[in-house]
């Protein structure tokens, strides 16, 4: 297999560190000499490329945040001339100006190779038929996967999003064996296929999912419903796009390609956490030409997994993303993360993994939190007292974790909207939103 690359995937730790150091020095020089705003920040700290004498020197370097990209919108952090940019992608800009990322020809080739490596690791082969059911365009997920699938040599079905019935028809007609979409949309595909009596006509074997947090319980549901192996993927446009990290067939943490990205998981004081402890994922790109970012604060919360994986790969590993640092909700002075709610409902058999959090403000100006959850089909007995018991059970479990009284609304399975993009978990109406 061309994209099984043991030279990098099973590299000895010291050999990897030597390679990372070499590439870090090059990246720092590239940023310092070609990005004026970054040079100013380095100069303010009295640091230059010559001060990078080991990987430990990285801790002295300034961090980069999303605001830095927005403040230099659109191309201010590019480290190559505009004529060398062959493609741009951009965020939606819901938090202000969009973040724009650029790619050279080499960047596109690197990205394609990384994605092909990821897909092989997840068991995809060149005789697979791969349906890419995500948005194409400025969103990185579509073309990022597309180029990787083609690089691997599998048949690509660029279905995009929408028209779920047609998506399922293509899966049956073309003999699709692998799919990429958000986990919430995959659940909707499974539900629709069941309603259309098409589940037994599917040829799916592999599902690659990302774009939103999802739980082990969701994995079990997807694997059971679609008869697949479900793999988590992680990426962000600021680093490259999808493919920064990916699960192998062990499904035990995500491998981060250390030859392309340097990984830090930091606590609130900026210190590296120990194995198993959660913190914010901070990444440094080591091979990106157009937009090399140093110590980029992703805002994603994860755990560092240092032990060697059962697959034999020696790359750094992280847990699935546990939530966002900026997803924290403050309700009556208490900090709440949506991931806490997800973990609670994942362990309750009477309800599905689908949920929405609705925040309101009562007439007496107190915050009210309601969690809408879907009742499993076999949990509905028709007895109101049974429904009341389920609701009370969910409320008690949430209160024990969140330390706040939570209203629970039970709704019919399928009531919470599924989309081909990221699901809307939070509806905050406290300020008339």
UniProtKB/TrEMBL annotation:
Entry's EC annotation: 6.2.1.30
Occurrences of domain AMP-dependent ligase C-terminal (ranges): 333-430
Pfam families per record: AMP-binding, AMP-binding_C_2
Keyword terms, alphabetized: Ligase, Nucleotide-binding, Phosphopantetheine, Phosphoprotein
One Gene Ontology biological process: phenylacetate catabolic process
EC main group: ligase
SUPFAM superfamilies in UniProt: Acetyl-CoA synthetase-like (SSF56801)
Associated pathway: Aromatic compound metabolism
One Gene Ontology MF term: nucleotide binding
Signal peptide (from-to): none
InterPro entries, per database record: Adenylate-forming_Reductase, AMP-bd_C_sf, AMP-dep_Lig_C, AMP-dep_synth/lig_dom, ANL_N_sf, PA_CoA_ligase
Nuclease is among the record's keywords: no
AMP-dependent synthetase/ligase domain: residues covered: 80-283
Quaternary assembly: Monomer.
Name the record gives this protein: Phenylacetate--CoA ligase
Organism: Methanohalobium evestigatum (strain ATCC BAA-1072 / DSM 3721 / NBRC 107634 / OCM 161 / Z-7303)
Lineage: Archaea, Methanobacteriati, Methanobacteriota, Stenosarchaea group, Methanomicrobia
């Amino acid at each position: 297999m061309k994209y099984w690359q043991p030279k990098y995937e099973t590299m000895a730790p010291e050999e990897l560190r030597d390679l990372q150091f070499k590439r870090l020095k090059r990246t720092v020089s590239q940023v310092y000499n070609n990005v004026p705003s970054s040079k100013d920040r380095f100069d303010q700290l009295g640091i230059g490329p010559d001060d990078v004498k080991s990987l430990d020197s990285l801790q002295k370097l300034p961090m980069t945040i999303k605001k830095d990209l927005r403040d230099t919108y659109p191309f201010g952090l590019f480290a190559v001339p505009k004529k060398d940019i062959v493609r741009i992608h951009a965020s939606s800009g819901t938090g202000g100006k969009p973040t724009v990322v650029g790619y050279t020809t080499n960047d596109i080739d690197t990205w394609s190779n990384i994605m092909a490596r990821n897909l092989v690791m997840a068991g995809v082969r060149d005789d697979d038929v791969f349906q890419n059911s995500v948005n194409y365009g400025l969103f990185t997920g579509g073309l990022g996967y597309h180029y990787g699938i083609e690089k691997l040599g599998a048949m690509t079905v660029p279905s995009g999003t929408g028209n779920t019935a047609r998506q399922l028809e293509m899966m049956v007609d073309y003999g699709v064996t692998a799919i990429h979409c958000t986990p919430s949309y995959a659940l909707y595909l499974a539900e629709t296929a069941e309603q259309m009596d098409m589940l037994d006509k599917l040829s799916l074997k592999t599902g690659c999912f990302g774009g939103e947090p999802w739980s082990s319980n969701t994995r079990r549901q997807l694997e059971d419903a679609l008869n697949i192996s479900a793999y988590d993927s992680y990426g962000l446009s600021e680093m490259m796009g999808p493919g920064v990290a990916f699960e192998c067939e062990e499904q035990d943490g995500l491998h981060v390609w250390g030859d392309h990205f340097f990984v830090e998981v930091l606590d609130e004081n900026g210190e590296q956490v120990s194995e198993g402890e959660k913190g914010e994922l901070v990444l440094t790109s080591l091979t990106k030409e157009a937009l090399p970012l140093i110590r980029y604060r992703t805002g994603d919360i994860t755990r560092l997994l240092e032990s060697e994986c059962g697959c034999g790969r020696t790359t750094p590993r992280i847990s699935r993303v546990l939530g966002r640092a900026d997803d924290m909700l403050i309700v009556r002075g208490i900090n709440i993360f949506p991931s806490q709610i997800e973990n609670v409902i994942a362990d309750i058999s009477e309800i599905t993994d689908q949920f929405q959090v609705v925040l309101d403000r009562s007439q007496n100006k107190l915050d009210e939190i309601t969690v809408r959850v879907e009742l499993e089909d076999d949990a509905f007995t028709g007895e109101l007292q049974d429904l009341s018991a389920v609701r009370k059970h969910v409320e008690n479990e949430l209160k024990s974790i969140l330390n706040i009284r939570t209203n629970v609304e039970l709704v019919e399975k399928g009531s919470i909207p599924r989309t081909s993009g990221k699901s809307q978990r939070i509806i905050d109406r406290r300020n008339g939103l």
